[in-house]
Every structure is written in C-alpha cells, then in structure tokens.
Amino acid sequence: MRIHLVRHGETAPDPPNSFYGGSEVPLSALGKHQAAAAGEYLAHEDLDCIVSSPLSRAVFGAQQVQMRHSKLDILEIDRFREIDRGRWVGHDLASINRNYPNDWSAYLEDPLNWRGHGGESLAQVQQRVIAAFTDVLKMGCRNIVIVSHLFPTRIMLNYINKTEELKDLLYLDIPTASVSRIECSDEQGQLVTLTGHIPY
Predict the structure, then answer these.
(1) What digits encode the pLDDT tens for the residues 157-167?
(2) Got the DSSP string for 43-104?
C-alpha cells in the first residue's frame, strides 16, 4: 500500500498573517498553481482512492488530482480538517496579545493540551486525525491520496514514525502543496519514504 499526503496550496487569509485554522480561506493564485503542480506530480500514480478534508482549499487540491484520474471520486472526511483556532480566527499574533493578553503565554506553557481560546487542543486534533487515518487504511485501497492541512499531515507522519515528539507536531516542515509518502508492506511494515517534497 502507498499513501500520499498532500498539503493544500498557499492561502490568502484576510487580514494577512492571521490565524484561520479550520475555517474557510481562499487559495492565492500561487496556491492554485502549487496545487496543480502537486496533482501533476501524482498523475502517473496508479491511484484507487482520493480522500480530502472538506475545506475548499483541500478539496481544490483533491480536484487537481482527480482531473488526472477522472474515474475516481473524492471522499471528503471531516476529521481531516485543520485545527479549530477558536477566538483566534481572524487575528494575527499582535492582535491576539492585544485582545486576549494571557492566551499566547498559556498556550506556550502547554501547546499540546491548551484550548482556552474555545477551539481545539492539538491533542484533540491528533486523536481525530489518527482515527480517520486508521479508518482509511482499512478501506482496502492500494494507492491513496489524502489532501489535508499542516497539522493533520504532521500528525499522520508522526503516527507512522511512532514518535510523540511535540517539536515535530509544531515544527516539522511541510510546505504548501508538498507531497509526503508512506509505504506499507508485509516485509517492512509502515515507513515514511518522502517528507514535504515540493513538486513545483
């Protein structure tokens, strides 16, 4: 089995540099180009399953894959959506510190479990993404694409690497529209063979 993890393309949040997490934001023109490049990179894969977060920026990326594999439908799974940023949505860091002066310091003290903004903790996202990922692995597909977001991609890679390193969940480099790959076999088990490859 082969699983390709694709992050959506560059976004254009309003205002720029604001947190948006699991809310809807449009792709930039560059982001659409990046997503098309990721789709082209996977054009020669013998895919039998395309999975996507339901957020439009991920669905667009899945559609770029689907254009090159027109007999496949896109299965949208809500548990692959990005982390819910609660009251931080629409604020940049300066605005968060101004409007919610204790939030950032509290988050830094426990970034895995803190959810004082009314959104999700990273631990909650980890739980739902791993559950969705293991369900996909049971679907019987041989060559799968999952188009999602930064944190879900990091979480799936960490799950396969069998690491609980918080720094990987927070800082593992997964560029926009990059492709990561997991290979599964009876001989070698589950291995990450590509991380954050930029196909454009």
Answers:
(1) 999 998 778 88
(2) TTS---EEEE-SSHHHHHHHHHHHTTSTTPPEEE-GGGSPPP-GGGBT--HHHHHHHSTTHH
